[in-house]
Amino acid sequence: MSNVDEHEIDKFSQLAHKWWDKDSEFKPLHEINPLRLDFIDRHASIAGKKVLDVGCGGGILAESMALRGAQVTGIDLAKKSLKVAQLHSLESGVPIDYRCVPVEELAAEMPASFDVVTCMEMLEHVPDPESVVRACATLAKPGGWVFFSTLNRNAKAYLLAVLGAEYVLNMLPRGTHEYARFLKPSELSRMARHAGLGLQTLSGMGYNPVTRIYSLNDDTDVNYLMATRRSA
Predict the structure, then answer these.
(1) What is the DSSP track for 26-82?
(2) Which of 173 and 17 is assigned the larger pLDDT?
(3) Which of 87, 135, 160, 199 could form a disulfide with 107, with the two C-beta atoms 3.0–4.6 Å apart?
(4) Annotated binding site for S-adenosyl-L-methionine
(5) Which residues are noted in the entry as S-adenosyl-L-methionine-binding (predicted)?
């Protein structure tokens, strides 16, 4: 059975032309990208490394990692988003290998091929997140880093990430997130452990609605980043 939700693919495909518009629905992704990038680079030192970005969308994180000197491959199943990523790569002169392929299929094709694998803001959009975690682990070289980011599942996350962000502040289109698909850190760390990944660091990501600034912190109640490493 394919691990894809066609409704989710269609949702992002309809917005594909806005990926690089920093005042569009993707503004939050542009604003948190420096935090994600620094978190990844601080742990994995990506310059010169072979990096895979799973669920790359329009290429925001993929391009930023390439600009830090990584050799980046980006994969996604939303063809319109990938086309935008490819065009932006050509325009910016930042070479990235973009492919429309399921992560599970790529894992069967290229096991233990990447120094770093990133899967950011994707797990909450697929029917079987554990399958994605396993595939990411398979794609990483022994000793390689695998990074995830997603949303915690609790009342606070629902209030802030769904009601607050989508209905009150209008930071995201309504229906962007489905609360039942959010993952507790304990659940994601269990999935990682079962896939042969050891938890290295867990960090929260917060937003101050007054200053409109995002920052990394110790509060993992809503958004969080997880750094894991495949056993050598």
Answers:
(1) THHHHHHHHHHHHHHHHHH--TT-EEEEET-TTSHHHHHHHHTT-EEEEE-S-HHHH
(2) 17
(3) 135
(4) 36, 55, 76, 120
(5) 36, 55, 76, 120
Distance CA 178, CA 190 (A): 21
Query: For tokens 């992002």, what's the residue?
Result: 12
Pairing of strands 223-230, 197-208: antiparallel
pLDDT per position as a tens digit, 46-89: 999 999 999 999 999 999 999 999 999 999 999 999 999 999 99
Q: What are the distances in angstroms from CA 207 to CA 31, 221, 225? A: 10, 12, 14
What is the Cα–Cα distance from 205 to 151, expressed in whole angstroms? Answer: 10
Helices 6-14 and 79-92 pack at an angle, to 10 degrees, of 40
Stretch (H or E) spanning 9: helix 6-14
Measured CA distances, 165 to 43, 125, 177, 208, 209 (Å): 29, 17, 10, 12, 10
pLDDT in tens, 143-196: 999 999 999 998 787 677 565 555 444 555 555 667 778 899 999 999 999 999
